[in-house]
Design a protein that fits this description.
The chain is of the alpha/beta class. The chain has 12 helices and 10 strands.
Length: about 325
């Protein structure tokens, strides 16, 4: 009996100690430098914006936020590295729709679980694509594009950087939704694909803003629409595909989500979420994001981010199945 009472007392003390210790860890956070993993290379829009808010987070927390670029394996290298990190709030990672909503359908095997390995902190920008055509094509808007694509023989050709790439997925999404055909022409790089569209070797394609806007402004490519539900600030007057086609729910965008490993203490998650919401709502940050070809918006709640990413997994998983790419990579 005495032994039982001692065991109960010891367990109670242990629980009490844990209860005191966990909030203290969160309250004292951070206790060392914070590592911010960027899943694509330096100089990209994601990287530029990350370095801007890393500085703001550093000021807020009084500790350096060290940006580390880990591109590779379709952003899965960074995702795997972050998923295997200590869940103490000292490692964060920026991931996109590829890592969190598409790759699990495309690849036979990935080394992390996008549904259980991460907790979201902030979903703060969308990265749309721009539907462009060679100006020699007498196509002035999206409705003309769809009508032309439906009757074109042979089918229109379109460029992307390979099967399963977001440019490819987006055009296939449009093909499925609007019932036209087009022939995929894969390239090794976006630069090569844009050059061939300008030269007239390929008719069309969805292209990233940074890679297409200079050619659009020079008149070498014609922009018909953006793939987001709202206009791109750098291309005022170029309509969203959804509006131009009269289909209000058509959207195909990548997005930047700041994540931490799952099991990171909730007080730390909540504090990071609050700081990022404040930082990314600053008009200066909003303008900086818009100036590099992104669409900034106010982050949803943590539950709202989870719900959005879940809906994206369903959308892209369904498309991958329809076009026969499940497990193709």
């Amino acid at each position: 009996m005495l032994r039982l009472m001692r065991s109960v007392a010891f367990a109670a003390l242990a629980l009490a100690a844990f209860g005191l210790h966990a909030p203290a860890r969160a309250q004292n956070y951070p206790t060392k430098n914070i590592n911010l993993i960027v899943s694509i290379g330096p100089g990209t829009g994601m990287d530029v914006l990350a370095r801007l808010y890393a500085e703001k987070l550093s000021q807020a927390f009084g500790r350096p936020v060290v940006v580390e670029n880990k591109p590779g394996a379709a952003t899965m290298l960074a995702a795997t590295m972050a998923a295997q990190s200590e869940p103490d709030g000292h490692t964060m990672v920026i991931l996109t729709s590829g890592a969190l909503a598409i790759n699990q359908h495309l690849y036979k095997k990935i080394n992390y679980n996008p549904e259980t390995d991460f907790t979201p902190i902030s979903l703060y920008v969308k990265s749309p694509l721009i539907l462009v055509v060679n100006p020699k094509l007498q196509i002035k808007d999206v409705k003309e594009f769809v009508a032309h694509a439906k009757q074109a023989k042979p089918p229109l050709t379109y460029a992307s950087v390979g099967a399963g790439a977001f440019q490819h997925i987006t055009m296939e999404f449009a093909k499925q939704r609007f019932g036209f055909d087009a022939t995929h022409v894969p390239y090794r790089t976006t630069g090569q694909s844009v050059a061939d569209m300008i030269a007239g070797h390929v008719a069309t394609g969805f292209v990233e803003a940074g890679a297409s806007i200079p050619s659009i402004k020079e008149g070498k490519l014609r922009a018909l629409a953006v793939s987001s539900l709202t206009e791109l600030p750098l291309l005022p007057g170029v309509p969203p595909f959804a509006k131009a086609a009269g289909v209000p729910d058509f959207e195909s965008v990548s997005w930047h989500a700041l994540m931490v490993p799952s099991k990171t203490p909730k007080p730390i998650v909540d504090r990071l979420h609050a700081e990022m919401k404040k930082i990314m709502s600053d008009p200066v940050m909003v303008k900086r994001a818009a100036d590099i070809g992104l669409i900034p918006f106010e982050t949803p709640s943590i539950d709202g981010i989870n719900a959005y990413i879940k809906s994206e997994r369903v959308k892209w998983g369904t498309l991958v199945d329809k076009i026969g790419l499940r497990g193709s990579q």
